[in-house]
Each structure stands twice: as C-alpha cells, then as structure tokens.
Amino acid sequence: MEEPLEEENQQVMRVLQALKQASQDLHNKPTSRKDDSNSSALKALLELEIEAENIFSNYPNLSTLYLHLSNLKTLVDKLQKSQGHSIRSFLSRRVSNHEISRVAGSIENEIQAWIDRESVVNLVKSLQGLDEEDEKVNLLTQFETRVSQGFDRDLQDLILKAKVFSALESVLCNSNSSKRIREQSALAVGALVGFNKAVFVGQVLMGRTIRSLISMASETSIRVLCSLIKSIRSPLVDDIESNGEIPKIISFLSSEEISIRVQAMDCVLEIGYFGRKEAVEAMIEEGLIKKLVELQRSELGGDLIDMGRFDEKENRGVCSEGIEIESKSKKESKERRFLESHPFASCVARFAVQLEVGEGLRQREKRAFKLEILRRVREASLSDAEAATIVAEVLWGSSP
To answer: Which domain of life is it from (predicted)?
Structure first.
C-alpha cells in the first residue's frame, strides 16, 4: 500500500511544481487578453480547477488551494467580460488584473507550503529509514537549496516540529553512514544556520556537529566548519579550543590532499580573526607558523609582496601632482587571481593581518603575537633571505 501512495504523492508533487511555476509567471505578469503570452500559465491553472476536486480529495491540506483556484476562475470570467473600450471597462480590467496577480501569488504560496511539508516529512523519514543513498542525497540537496533561499517562518515551524536538525546531526555523526551522505548532511546543517542563526546556533554548540565535522577530515566538512566559524564567531572558536580540537585543525595543513590543506588554511584564518588569546596561542604552540612558512615555500606558495614589485613596472600611473598611484581594484584583481593558483602565497602575513584586524584579541595581545610570529618565522626559515622576505610582508601587511 505504501508504494502506490508514495507514487501518488510524487505525481501530485510534480503537478504542483509545474503549477507553482505557472502561478509565479501569472503573478509577475497578469494576463488581460486571450492571446497574451501568459495564457498557457493561466490555462494550466484553470484546467486544474476543473479537476481539482478529484485530484486533491485525498489531500485536506490542499483545500485552500482549491478555493484559490475557484476564485481565480471567477476573476478571469469577470476580466473577459470587461473587454470594452470604455473607462469603466478599463478600470475594471485594472482591478481584475491586480486581483488575479494577488490570487496567483496566494496559489504559489499554498503550493510552496504543501511542497515544504512533504519535503520535510520525506527527508526525516528517509534519513531514519533504509532508503538508497542517491535518494537520501537528493532529498538533502533539495532541502539545502530550499533553506538557502532565505528565512520563512512557516518552514521553520515545520523544521522544528519534525526535528530536522537532530535527524541531520544523527546522520552526520554516524560513522556507518557513507561519506557522501554525511557531507551532504553537513552542508544542510550549514544552510540551516544561515537560515536562522538565532535558532540553530544553540543546537550546533550544544551538539556533536563540530566534533563530527573535524573527525570527518574531508574538504567539505572543513569548508562547512569554516562557514560555521564565520557565522557563529568567537563562541564557536571558544568551543573548539576548549574541546582540544585546535591541534586536529592544524594537522590538516599537512594533509596529502591539496583541497584539504586549502580549506584548513581558510579555517585557520577565520580562527585567527575571531579567536581569543587561548585559541591563537594554541595554534602557535602547535607549530602553526612553521607549517605556514613551509606552505609559503611550496609550489602553491609565493610572495605577494614580490608580485607587487613586479606589477609596479607596468601597472602604475602618475596623477596630476606627480604622485604615482596604482588602481586598487586592478591590484586586488591580480592578487585574487594569483591566490587562486597559489593559495598559500604570503600565508604567514595573511594570518598576521587576520590577528591584527580581528575582533578576538586586545591591542596588547595583538602586539605580543606579532612579535612572536616574527620570532618563529626567523626560526623556521631556511635562509636569511627567506626570513627577510616573510618578515617584511608581516610588517608591511600589518599596521604599526
């Protein structure tokens, strides 16, 4: 019995998706003539109204939609009867068009609400059941896309009532689940925090999400961790540091996979910006500066300061006062392109700048860490020339 019912639900879902698009088109541009470009959208909605009673008889939640469709038919009939050239007909058409647009918007909202209810129920049921991996990933992807569209109070109520976050976290923390499903669950969790931080940040901090993301040690899990640090800021960094997770994050900088190293670098920069003294201290004591020097020395490293010197010859102009200037946007564009192919370029200075402009440290702590970074750079460098270049970048990139 479940399979026919599920197939029927999917059929109704497909019909409603098509109707939602038709309603959206009609809402954006109401029709006033039979040969209008939106007549196909209007025709689809009106044809459904004729069959709606039979189609939706098993779906009480769609009763309001049926009423909107009936109302739409009445409005269209009224519009088609006012096709004269008098002022009264003109005003009547304007009013009818406005009402048709409003009803179309209501139809779209009702359809979206039904789709949201079915999607949330199906997602939780799938995550807790024995559905195939592709089906679970598909539902997770759809959910992530939906919540990424922005806040919706009705959708939030559905999510909370169905305990979606708990279902996602259970899958994320289950090492028996496939990597693909766990990563997609992680992306869905990240999307939920972006959907409404006020509600879901607490669940992240109180649960096992962060530890699971770090233990997964994949490009996607670290990327989600980085996005959560940006959203939750210092409280999350405090939580990471107090749970002793800093050494694990630093170890990702030595991963054999370049993509993991790149994501770990972004994560380190975010921790540097939002982290308090204890978190920054933990990173430096774990040998962060030495690792950054090694990464800057690698093929994917380099020195932005040297690139700037090279650019001076070709990209500088002279203003009327004779002072040399360089287009800031042009310079930033060149640096961005260079960093795309050399993600560890000037990574020591970039970390130092994050501490300098960040919001987690006091001014005296920033000065002290700056001196410590310079000391460790000299220790980690293979030559005086290398040390001089990195030290110059740190001093040049940070304010005095």
So the answer is: Eukaryota
